[in-house]
Amino acid sequence: MVEATGRVGVGDRVTYLPGTGSRSGTQRSGTASSTAPRRCVQGRVVAPPVADPYAAVVWVPTRPDGAADDVEPTWVRHDRLVEIAHPNAVSGVEDARP
Description:
single chain
C-alpha cells in the first residue's frame, strides 16, 4: 500500500524531498546549485521515528537506496515524506490468476 502521508514503521519504503528538512550532507541554501529543482530520494526506514516535542517535529531515520548498511541514517522530517509504502500491506487488488 502506498500513501501520501501517515504512520511510518521500520522497513517501510519512503520517498522524500532532500534539503533543509533532512539531516544529511545536503546542499546549503544560498549556493548557486540550491536553486536547481530537487529530486526525490528513495530509501527505507531503518529505526522507529523519533518525536521532538520541543519543535513539534517527527524525525524518520532512513537509509537512502544504494547506501551501505554501516552508513549513519539520514534523519528526515515527517513533513518531507512524499510517499510511504508498507511492505506487508494488502493493496486491495485481487490476484486474477486461476
